Amino acid sequence: MSLASRFPFPPNDPEDAGSRYNSRLYERFEGLLPIVTYSVILWCTVVYFLVNKDGAGSVASNKLTHFLGFTTYQDLCNGRWWGPIASACVHIDLWHIVFNMLWLVRLGPLMERGLGSFKTVIFFISAAFVSSTVQLSFAGPGIGFSGVVYALGGFMWAAWPRFTGFLEGFNGTSLRWLLIWQAFCLVLSWGGMMPIANTAHISGMLFGFLVGLWACHGTKRGWYWLCASTLMLLASIAFCALAAFSN
After folding, report:
1. Residue 119's domain spans which residues?
2. What is the pLDDT of residues 60-113, one digit of tens each?
3. Is residue 6 part of a domain?
4. Number of structural domains, the chain?
């Protein structure tokens, strides 16, 4: 079995999902208000204006950015375990927050109405922690919700055959745009034109993809995907714990 057939791209037309589309699993929370998604958008927006009110790069802005979430390895050594999660809500550049919030307002409600608010907040926190920690451990500190956005994309890529309602807002074109943008980000980084947390993007998508495969197949048939995603989370926790104990 080829990779393309085992992990198919979501179709652009929901009707192309075939008989699986009749499950409409997404609609089990059809009338749910996506309060988690809207709360995250509100907080990210508030943080953006707070860190930019005195001008990006100023002493006051840098102190506030650090206070609100920017986390270095030394911060982890000092016990700032919540930093990798909080850093996901910090944005300095306008294009950065606009890109992330546009994707979040599109994908977040799909996720929340498909899985419910409780599971969505757990997913957001886990994806933020994993993507930010992997970024910090391999390429230095980063900020922004991009890691979670890519985790959402990875989850929906893997889980759409079961959660076919995702196709109402996430399709093959959506996934291709995320992958094209990631390729563009790599070019910008490797060319020295712009520092981008590519490691957070890639690790976030991988984590979301593994969780999505688990959600798609269930615990009995997809226990190995559960184990793989859990290992990513445990490795991130271990990294933070070792940093704290090394101080």
Report:
1. 11-246
2. 888 999 999 999 999 999 999 999 999 999 999 999 999 999 999 999 999 998
3. no
4. 1
Structure-derived torsion over alpha carbons of residues 223, 155, 97, 37, reported in degrees to the nearest 10: -90
Give the residue ranges of DSSP H helices in 140-222. 146-159, 172-190, 198-221
Three-class secondary structure of residue 204 per DSSP: helix
Within a domain: residue 26?
Answer: yes
| pLDDT attached to residue 26 | 52
Catalytic residues: 146, 201
Cβ within 8 Å of residue 148, ≥6 positions away: 88, 104, 124, 127, 128, 131, 204
| Measured CA angle at 35 (ends 218, 49), to 5 deg | 120
Q: How far apart are CA 182 and CA 212, in angstroms?
A: 20
Domain at 83, CATH number? 1.20.1540.10
